[in-house]
Each structure stands twice: as C-alpha cells, then as structure tokens.
Design goal:
- The chain has 598 residues and is of the alpha/beta class.
- The chain has three domains: 2-208, Rossmann fold; 217-369, Rossmann fold; 388-586, no CATH class.
- It is 25% helix and 22% strand.
- The longest helix is centred in the middle third of the chain and has 16 residues, at 217-232.
- The protein is globular.
C-alpha cells in the first residue's frame, strides 16, 4: 500500500493516509488487476487517477469509506488513498475502514503507533528533499529530488516496523514498511512539479504491486459509448457546447453513441468570447454533422443534460461528480448530472483524435466558462486587512535580506525559520546583487494552498535593472511559503516602484478586454501621494502558464520557455493603450496560484 499524507495531515498509515498502495489478491471481481483510488477529497486525487491511466493501468475512484470486503470482492490489484483538506485533528476528519490495511496480509493495527503534529509553519511549494533510493519506491532516482510539498501536519514519531525513506530538512517526507509493502509520502508524486513522480508511481505499480499495462484509450471510448447508450436509451441529450475541446469531444462522443436526432447542442454567445468564437463553434458543429436550430421545443422531463466540463474544473468547483470531499477552489464552473466519462485534458484530446475531430479543434487552448469576463478583476474598495503592514515588512526583509541580516529583528527570525541554509545563502546572493523591492497590491485573487481554496493578496516585485528571471522565480517560490496570505507573485515592468498603490480604480463588469489571455487589474501606479491624485488607471497582468493537466503548472520563464524579446514587445504594445498604468508578469506556479485570477 502506498499512502500519501493529507495537505494538513501527515497520513501515511497513522490515521488518514494520503497516497498509498497495497497488493490485493483478486477475488474474481469485475475490476481484476485494476487500481482503486479511495477519495479523501484531495485536489490532486484525479491527477493520481490520470497518472495511473497514462501508464495504461485501469483505475477506479471510490469513496474513502468503501469497506475492505467490497474492494476484495471486485478484485482490485492495488489500493491508493488520496489526501484531503482535513487535518487528523479536525472533528470532521473522514472515516475509513482500517481493514483495508489487512487485505491479503496478517492483521495490522488501525493505528500503527506513529504520531503526527501540527507545525507552526506550512510547507507549500517545490522543495528539494533527500531520498533513500535503496527503497523499492524510489529505485532509480537520485538521492535528492525536486518535489511538491503541501502540508501543515508532519510526522512526529515513526510507527513500529516503518523506516524513514525521505526527508525535507528535519521534516519526514516519506516512510516505508518494505515487508508489508506499505509506503507513505508527504509530497505529491502525482503532479508535474515533482519532476520524477511518474517514476515513483511506475515503481509502485509495476515493481511493488505487480500491475499490468494493458488499458488503452480505445477501452475507455467503448466504455463511454456503452454507458451513454445504456443510460440515455431513446431519450434526447442536451449538450451545453462552449466550442472548446472538452464540450466538442463530448458532443462527438454522444453523436457516435446515439442517433443524430437524439443530440441537441446549444451554444450561447455571452459577449465575452474569443474572436470568431461563435463562428468556430458553428463550423465545428457542421463537421460533426449536427445542425443548428432556432427553435428547440424541448420537454425537460424527456431530455438528459450533457456537460463537457473538464475534470480539474469539477474538482476545483468541489463537484460531487469528481470528488465527494474536495474543497472549493473555483466558483465559476457549472456541475450537473451528465452523460460523460471523459477525464482529463490530454485524454480528451486523444479521444477527440480517435473520434476523427480535426486537429485545430482538438488542440484548441482551454478557455474559462465565463469567458473574458473572468479576466477583469473587479473591486469597489482596496483589499487591505490588519496584516497588510506586517506582511509588507516581511517582504522588505526578504528583498533586502543581505542588509537586514545585520539588523536583528523578530520578523527576520521568522523569515530565517522558513528557509534552509542553502536557500538563505541564495537569498543573500540575490539581494546583494540585485536591487529589488516587494510589496502587497491592494487586490485579492484566487489560489490553492494545500487542498483548500485561498482568496488573498498579490505580491508585486520591481527592480532597478532589467529583470533577472531566475532570481525572480526563486523569490516567487519563497514568498508564498513565508507569507501564507500571499498566493500570487507578479513582476511589475517599468521603472522601480517607489510608492506602491494603496487604493484601486473602481471596476465593475462593464469593461471588455482584449482577446489576449491577460488580466486587467484596478491598480494605478506612480501617483504623487502629495497631490492626492485619484486612482483612475488600470494595470495589466500577463499570465504565461505551462501545464499538462491544469491541476499544477509553472509560469513560462522569459528567455527559457518564451523569447524575452517577445515578452518585452507585448509589454511595450500594452503600455501604448490609453489608461494603462503598468504591465506585470505573473511569476506564480500552481499552487499556490490558480490558472486564472478569479
């Protein structure tokens, strides 16, 4: 069994495991050889599912409280337990059947004797951790690897029979009982931010659990078609078609499974679409053989509703369809009962190709449901809480660290307690070489920390010289770890910001923005406070985002992932627009930020 600790739970096998795997003897069930994922509400629970299927192993997601006998009867080969937003100390901590740890093994205690404790400082972000690569789980890896950690609780005492196999400084990040094939990690091997996470899962599935790689896209397509036909019968299906890859593939799948007259696709031009969006939708429908109609004359009681919402959207909306216990991250996604078994973005694209959809449709970029409206940050007053001044002081210490270490201060010790010796050395080097300042912006944006939604500050960083991107990316990883009320860091282009804005330009949903995926913020920089000039301009954020699944991702680094001259040209063109104060570049990975700002 491979167990992944909760965001705030160091679960392993103590109480609420986070990611675990265990060999299970088949009992002639319908899921023989498959992996069962017991869902405790983790935001990345569906990413575990996806990673397993990428390795061509069948996986099924069941509630955490599924009894052990049901798992045995269905013939699952391995068990994975996801994490969740709850702490082991919470009164509403989810329940599980402790017998899952005894399937096919001698009786083991419900609690193995280990304990956890809640730390005063969370670990949220990408860290280098030390690994025992003699452990079967980490075979073939280096002794130090880059991983994503998101937790507040940590192991205090290791259970009898277990040994520590991974550490983040003095914090235990992995344990194992090789004899019983029980493994636990405090980090996320399932996400792209853990660079060699797939190898960990591969070791887990094939070397430890003995799974077979034989589950393909064709299997899933036929499974979808069969389920659609069984559930719909001779009824009609109403598809809410945005024109994106998800809803288009969903429509194509319905079109293949049912008669054309049973499928009714509806697209609404809400005024915030991309350029030629509705025309593209009409062309896509025509290629699918679906005709547009002005009058539908539908009877609600005779029609099913199909929704092409992508899994991450359902997860982050805390839909019961994707996860029974997930915390709300996004609030702008619909979730209804639907006819679909489509999973993640890359799987949807692969299925679209199998269904014969043209490449220009299959490879379209994802687009938020509310359209461009979601990229206009609205506010009628500045967001300034009681911790605003203290957080700004911490940011000053961080960006002027080389000078601040010479002046002992309580907040300085707080900063030092959050970083390793190696990170402290790098921060000293960066702040001695570059003239930087960091400051809070009086707006808030959505983020994800651990498995929970956060809605908090944006930190701006400016410099006197040209941006040194590697240093900026380092600060962007460091700052949210030290200041948990910050979930996004941006670089502010232009001259050194001397007086950060402390008020906002009142903004409501009446202003359109360009098609380019940028965010319009109500921030007016460079005003002389002595003249009491009112805030009347807005600033633009450029968000370049690299991801495979939209569950985690990184910002594209200028000069590496994207030519710096292209970024600078974008900045210069945007600055020519009347009413624009400054242009910012989003340096934030996900987590702690989300793809969109709202």
């Amino acid at each position: 069994m491979y167990v992944r600790g909760h965001d705030s739970v160091c679960g392993y096998v103590f109480l609420l495991p986070q990611l675990g795997i265990s060999s299970v003897e088949p009992q002639n069930g319908s899921c023989e050889g498959a992996v069962v994922i017991l869902d405790a509400g983790a935001q990345y629970g569906k990413v575990i599912d996806r990673r397993i299927r990428e390795l061509f192993v069948r996986s099924e997601i069941l509630p955490l409280e599924t009894p052990a006998f049901a798992i045995r009867e269905q013939g699952f080969r391995a068990i994975i337990i996801s994490g969740g937003p709850n702490s082991v100390y919470a009164e509403d901590a989810p329940w599980f059947d402790p017998a899952i740890f005894t399937i096919g093994k001698p009786m083991m205690n419900k609690v193995f004797g280990g304990t956890v404790h809640r730390k005063s400082v969370r670990e949220d972000g990408v860290f280098n951790i030390g690994l025992d690569n003699t452990c079967s789980l980490f075979r073939g890896l280096q002794k130090e690897e880059l991983v994503l950690l998101t937790h507040g609780d940590s192991v205090d005492k290791v259970a009898d029979g277990f040994k520590v196999v991974a550490q983040s400084g003095s914090i235990i990040a992995g344990i194992a009982n090789e004899q019983k094939k029980l493994y636990g990690t405090q980090f996320h091997p399932e996400v792209d931010l853990t660079e060699r996470g797939t190898e960990i899962l591969r070791n887990f599935l094939f070397e430890i659990a003995g799974c077979t790689s034989n589950f393909t896209v064709q299997n899933r397509q036929q499974s979808c078609i069969t389920e659609i036909q069984e559930k719909v019968g001779k009824s009609k299906v109403l598809v809410l078609l945005s024109g994106g890859v998800d809803s288009t593939v969903c429509t194509a799948l319905l079109n293949k499974a049912l008669n054309q007259e049973q499928v009714i696709a509806v697209h609404i031009d809400n005024g915030f679409m991309r350029k030629r969006e509705s025309q593209s939708v009409e062309e896509a429908l025509t290629k699918l053989g679906i005709n547009l109609k002005g009058e539908m004359n539908l009877k609600p009681e005779e029609v099913f509703l199909a929704q092409g919402t992508l899994r991450p959207d359902l997860i982050e909306s805390a839909s019961h369809l994707a996860s029974g216990k997930a915390e709300v991250i996004k609030t702008h996604h619909n979730d209804t009962e639907l006819i679909r078994k489509l999973r993640d973005e890359d799987e949807v694209r692969a299925l679209g190709r199998e269904l014969g959809l043209p490449e220009d449709i299959v490879c379209r970029h994802p687009f938020p449901g509310p359209g461009l409206a979601i990229r206009v940050i609205c506010a009628d007053e500045p967001y300034i809480c009681k911790d605003f001044a203290e957080t700004n002081n911490i940011l000053k210490i961080i960006t002027d660290f080389s000078a601040m270490v010479k002046k002992p201060h309580t907040l300085l010790q707080r900063v030092k307690s959050c970083i390793s010796d190696e990170e402290e050395e790098k921060l000293l080097q960066i702040t001695s070489l570059h003239s930087l300042n960091a400051f809070l912006l009086p707006i808030k944006t959505v983020g994800v920390q651990g498995d929970c939604r956060s809605y908090s500050y944006v930190c701006g960083v400016s410099s006197k010289e040209a941006p040194h991107w590697e240093s900026l990316m380092f600060l962007a990883r460091l700052i949210p770890r030290m200041c948990h009320t910050i979930n996004r860091v941006v670089y502010v282009f232009g001259s050194h910001v001397k007086e950060p804005p402390t008020d906002i330009t009142p903004t409501f949903l009446t202003t359109g923005i360009s098609q380019m995926p940028v965010i319009l913020t109500p921030l007016h920089f460079d005003r002389d406070s002595s003249q009491r000039q009112p805030s009347c301009r807005r600033s633009v954020v450029v968000r370049t985002f690299i991801t495979r699944d939209f569950m985690t991702g990184i910002p594209a680094t200028p000069g590496n992932h994207i030519p710096e001259e292209v970024v600078l040209k974008m900045v210069n063109e945007i600055k020519k627009i009347p009413g624009i104060s400054r242009v910012m570049f989003d340096l934030t990975s996900k987590p702690p930020g989300t793809t969109e700002w709202e």
